[in-house]
Amino acid sequence: MKPAVILYKKLPDDLYARLAEQCDVTEVSNLSPESQQQHAAAFRQAEGLLGSGGKVNGELLANMPNLRVCSSVSVGYDNFDVAALNARHVVLMHTPTVLTETVADTMMALVLSTARRVPELDAWVKAGHWQKSIGPAQFGIDVHHKTLGILGMGRIGMALAQRAHFGFGMKILYNARREHEEAQSRFGAQRCELKELLQQSDFVCISLPLTDETHHLIGAAELELMKPDAVLINAGRGPVVDEKALIAALQAGKLHAAGLDVFEQEPVPADSPLLSLPNVVTLPHIGSATHETRYGMMQDAVENLIAALGGNVDKNCVNPQALK
Ligand SMILES: NC(=O)c1ccc[n+]([C@@H]2O[C@H](COP(=O)([O-])OP(=O)(O)OC[C@H]3O[C@@H](n4cnc5c(N)ncnc54)[C@H](O)[C@@H]3O)[C@@H](O)[C@H]2O)c1
Ligand SMILES: O=C(O)[C@H](O)CO
Question: SUPFAM superfamilies this protein is in (predicted)?
Answer without folding.
Answer: Formate/glycerate dehydrogenase catalytic domain-like (SSF52283), NAD(P)-binding Rossmann-fold domains (SSF51735)
